[in-house]
Amino acid sequence: MANLLKTVVTGCSCPLLSNLGSCKGLRVKKDFLRTFYTHQELWCKAPVKPGIPYKQLTVGVPKEIFQNEKRVALSPAGVQNLVKQGFNVVVESGAGEASKFSDDHYRVAGAQIQGAKEVLASDLVVKVRAPMVNPTLGVHEADLLKTSGTLISFIYPAQNPELLNKLSQRKTTVLAMDQVPRVTIAQGYDALSSMANIAGSQLLEKFLQLRF
């Protein structure tokens, strides 16, 4: 292999490689310019974009319209935490009834009760189920989202290509909760595992009730 490599290098028409054959063991020293930037220097070089104050952002919690869906994206306790941080929270009337949360509970937590259209037009919308056609309004929920807004919900993108196209047309920033990696560092955002644990415990309770 060494002789083959020497033959190739010697017979090569490239000057750089041809010189390698005649320079036995000779090292050519070249000066290289090394640059090192600290994190602070890199941060200063990056353009600074001013953020939006929380008090100027509205979080919307619409009512789930999927059949037999009893969950709600935010409980009154979650609303209270957001309000303490400065967010404005609007909740659709009756959004928490299936979860035993009345509109008064949300009002006490600091939320405003509004209609579906007003809630879906919020800066940031949090849902459980992916947007779908609202039979009462006769329009798709994605069409009611604010342009360039943010949606946090279960999406299942591989199963809903048409929904992704709608959200793309609205320039919506989407955080798909079903795509959050199920790892330790993201455990606080892992909604799939929490739902699976609840389903498993309920299944065991039902089995024990029927068995004994």
From TrEMBL:
The entry's keywords: NAD, NADP, Translocase
Enzyme Commission no: 7.1.1.1
Alanine dehydrogenase/pyridine nucleotide transhydrogenase N-terminal domain sequence ranges: 60-199
Range of residues in the leader sequence: none
Superkingdom in the source lineage: Eukaryota
Coiled coil region boundaries: none
Catalytic activity of the protein: NAD(+) + NADPH + H(+)(in) = NADH + NADP(+) + H(+)(out)
Catalytic EC class: translocase
PANTHER family in the record: NAD(P) TRANSHYDROGENASE, NAD(P) TRANSHYDROGENASE, MITOCHONDRIAL
Name by which UniProt lists this protein: proton-translocating NAD(P)(+) transhydrogenase
Annotated gene: NNT
